Amino acid sequence: MPNIVLTRIDNRLIHGQVAVTWSSHVGANLIIVVDDEVAKDKTQQVLLDLAAPQGVSTRYFTTDETIQKIHKAAPHQKIFIVVRDVNVLVKLVEGGVPIKEVNVGNMHFKEGKKQISSTVSVDENDITAFKRLNELGVKCEVRRVPSEKGIDIMELI
């Protein structure tokens, strides 16, 4: 069983707040970015690596690669999974990745989305995905930083 210490939705993927604050808070030593585009783009990977704290390794996988590889993780790996899109999480959980809780950090506002918290905006597709995760027994909590009190996303949608 992979040792997943945190799963986070964040449009920015790896950045100072995620890499330093959350990694140290949960004791992660491996950040896995699950993003089909970034997994194929070495330039984006190099830029994201610049934000990773010393002593924390990074991996960049597609959704399918994550489903295939996550169960091969070594017991000493404390895994922090980060994705941009809630729909990726639905695919991961339905594909057998043992995610029980999700930290919803940043989902930027854009046309067609409504803002439900200071850092989270959703559209109908996102709401459907969060409801599906809820059906699958996955708790999704809006929480920017560890010191903040989390809010169950089902209360906001």
Helix content: 25-40%
Quick one: biggest sheet? Answer: 7 strands, mixed
Shape: globular
Number of E strands: 9
H-E order? EHEHEHEHEEEHEEH
> What is the arithmetic mean of pLDDT?
95
Q: What count of helical segments does DSSP give? A: 6
Structural class: alpha/beta
Structural description of this entry:
There is one protein chain. With 157 residues, the chain is α/β, with parallel strands linked by helices. It is built from 6 helices and 9 strands, in the order E-H-E-H-E-H-E-H-E-E-E-H-E-E-H. It has a 7-stranded mixed beta sheet, sandwiched between helices. A two-stranded antiparallel ribbon has the order 6-7. Helix 4 (86-94) packs parallel to helix 5 (124-135). The model has no long low-confidence stretch (mean pLDDT 95).
Summarize the helices and strands and which ones pair or pack.
Elements: E1 3-10, H1 16-26, E2 30-34, H2 42-49, E3 57-61, H3 63-69, E4 78-83, H4 86-94, E5 101-106, E6 114-115, E7 121-122, H5 124-135, E8 139-142, E9 151-152, H6 153-156
Parallel strand pairs: 1-4, 1-5, 2-3, 2-4, 5-8
Antiparallel strand pairs: 6-7, 8-9
Helix pairs in contact: 4-5
